[in-house]
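Q: How would the structure tokens look for this protein?
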Amino acid sequence: MALLIDTLLASLWIGGSSILVLAVHAAGRRWMAPPPAPEGTPPAADGHDHPPVVRDAAQVIGLRTAALFGVILAMVYAQELGQYQQVREGLSREAVAIADVFHDAGRYGGDLAEPVQSAMRDYVRFVVDREWRLLGTERRLSRRAWEARERAYAAVLDALPATPREVALREVALRERMLARLGVIAEHRHLREEWAAQGFSMVFWLPALAGLVLVTLPLCVFPPTRQTRLLLASLGAYAGLVLFFVQAFSSPFTYPLHDPPGAFERLLENDFDARAP
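A: Here is the predicted structure in token form.
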């Protein structure tokens, strides 16, 4: 289902950009109509109906505009791809921290193990079942997931050693390690909310679409032949594909290119069993 949705959205971006380029070319041909040829002058052999000076100006302006447009798209694409990868890497590091807290609580034993392990299970379940959707739709974190994390933190904070084994484990800073890991979880949650809150507004989309229009305008000096239209459509298709990925990378919590919390799902599938050798 996700693949079908992504394919449809990509097709809309590609088709829409191609139509935009062809429409701009057709409108530009009307706005910048070539001067009428003197009576009896045969048509140019290469099909051009604009004078050479206009074609030269269009070439210079078109190349410079295309270069600026390409640089802007490349910078934004690289930025959003980097953020998309950071979300995935952060989720993996958070899953490792959760697993460490879960297993360290079991090693600590006593009255600490059950409440902390239960809170970690609830936390992961709330993130997978509810929070990921909230990040994509409402751009906020789940209150229940926060409460589960706070339960684990409070339990570890209030833990007191009761047996000689617990005293020994505390001496090697097991409790402090769990508190540090719970702090890592909170840090990644705040970062995830910030990434979800970020998004592209007209500050990006207006220059991006305007750039595509301005790149196409100098090409209006070329006659509207079948070959020209095919080349223009290919330009629009590629620009639409890049814009599709920019939009997709800007929010990994929703479509397109919805990135599920796979690291958390694997924790649930394994039911927090002991780590495999």
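The two ends are 35 Å apart (CA to CA).

The chain has nine helices and no strands.

Upvote if useful.
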